[in-house]
Amino acid sequence: MNSSFSKIVLITGASSGIGQATARRLAADGHHVVLGARRVDRLAALVAELQAAGHSAEYQELDVTDVDSVRGFVEAAHARHGRVDVLVNNAGVMPLSTVDALRIDEWNQMIDVNLRGTLHGVAAVLPLMRARREGHIVNIASTAAYRVDPTAAVYCATKYAVRALSEGLRQENQDVRITVVSPGYTQSELADHGGDPQVRAAVRAAAEQLAIPAAAVADGIGYAIAQPRNVDVNELVVRPTAQN
Ligand SMILES: NC(=O)c1ccc[n+]([C@@H]2O[C@H](COP(=O)([O-])OP(=O)(O)OC[C@H]3O[C@@H](n4cnc5c(N)ncnc54)[C@H](OP(=O)(O)O)[C@@H]3O)[C@@H](O)[C@H]2O)c1
């Protein structure tokens, strides 16, 4: 079974960081990438870059917290190409703080983007993939899906949940491949938005010391996608060698 043919790959959160690097890697592998995020100016620039390099790419505005937006993103790609081979549920936010700070809006944002957004993606593609008895869902979790640290309780809760969801999905589906990719410190914009400013500064300092390029995570995603359809890479943890 050869699965190295060009696939239709949808990537959420493709406007920066790991999603952007994944778009570059998968487009270079010969896949057609469909990029989603809210900052469409970034997506347009990335699609232009990929097309100029001879690759195949398109984009659509996407807010993963809105189930209709996610459904529209998937349905438009499905209508254009007749199939969706892979969904990379990558969009995420990480505004960190201790629980006693009660930054409830930010808790809800993490639940809405990291967990509900992933569920919205699953809901949009799973019926299509089950009908074809083929497909691949790649959920981006984190090393925070394996270990809890202070200031990250809610973020970890969302990432543990993504991992649990993925394991349940895997057990329920014999034809659809399910992969969880869990990065450690990775160069991106993740620590640039929200959360306690002191925590944000500490995370950025640690990231400056340790972080691996987003392309290192994208390579793991590319590896999982390139496997034959009867081989499901279930979990990949990709972190800096020096991360404890
Ligand atoms: N960097 C790390 O150290 C690290 C470690 C472990 C796990 N991760 C995970 O990796 C994934 C990617 O993050 P990153 O590190 O690459 O951070 P990033 O550079 O901040 O990228 C996050 C992406 O998510 C998108 N996004 C946020 N809210 C969205 C929404 N409501 N709808 C659609 N897209 C949305 C952003 O696009 P717009 O703002 O344009 O919508 C952006 O493209 C996340 O799930 C994150 O939790 C990262």
Automatic annotation (TrEMBL):
The keyword Nucleotide-binding does not apply. The keyword Cell inner membrane does not apply. Signal peptide: none annotated. InterPro entries: KR_dom, NAD(P)-bd_dom_sf, Sc_DH/Rdtase_CS, SDR_fam. Keywords: Oxidoreductase. Residues 7-188 form the Ketoreductase domain. It comes from the Bacteria. Belongs to the short-chain dehydrogenases/reductases (SDR) family. PANTHER family: DEHYDROGENASE/REDUCTASE SDR FAMILY MEMBER 11, DEHYDROGENASE_REDUCTASE SDR FAMILY MEMBER 11. This is SDR family oxidoreductase. It comes from Micromonospora musae.
